[in-house]
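Many introductory courses stop at the sequence. We go one step further.
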Amino acid sequence: MQTKKLRNKENIAGILLLFFSVLAAGQEKMHCDLRFINHLMNKGNYYEALFLLNSAACLQSEPKDSSWFLKGLTFMSLNSPDSSTQYLLKIEPQSPLFIKSSLYASYNYAELGSYEKAASLISGMVLIDQEAIAIRDLQLAGISLLRDDPAMFEAYFEKADKTQPLVSVPSVNLLKAAEGVRTHRRKSAFLAGVLSGIVPGAGKLYAGKKGEALASFLATTGLGLVTWENYHKKGPENYMTIISGTLFIVSYSAGIYGSALSIRISETKFKEDVKRTVLLNLRISLDGAYRR
């Protein structure tokens, strides 16, 4: 917490320093120093970089492609893919930054889960540079994996030139992720609930949680036996029967719901892990090519 506060103070101090430096320099000497802004970004000073990019000098500079591209990268680094994409897509096809901005925008769409947009944005691009082609094909393979389309993954992965240095390592990691998806045994939350409804704890066992399965079985079965005994010995209206019966219903229902929830959580975590792996390796190839 103290580190975060210190970082915020450093950001504010840096922005104030830049602000007063610009004022001291005089309006007539202002210019958009993109090299210095890029230096700030490489140092992790994203708020300072954004402050300069929003200065009058950069907003009035022509052409604006470089400023838009750096803004897009800055917002990416600040975990704001929506804002990043907004600036990256402003760059026109005739710009020398168009290819890299499109690849980064496609990456943002993939991060946001808009896989159709991510693929359509770059699939039709006409490329000449072999490195860019390899990066594009690998990115399309990764997007296909996230879309749960193994056939398209195979097609794009085969096309990608794995001999390109910036693609070689990410391609190995993507292949491992694809193998993990292929061998992953998907489980049904509905089936887990049904199993726990038939035999308490069976759904937890299906989910791979043996300890919780045993605990659920013992608790629910024990409460059921106590309720049955109280019912026959003390009658249905006895407070002991009512209490034990209520606890049994709660335990039985919780077992069904908990089993289904366990499957949902484990399946969601698996998908998130795959997405994290794919995006990390796509980003490695992108940054290696376009942020050197």
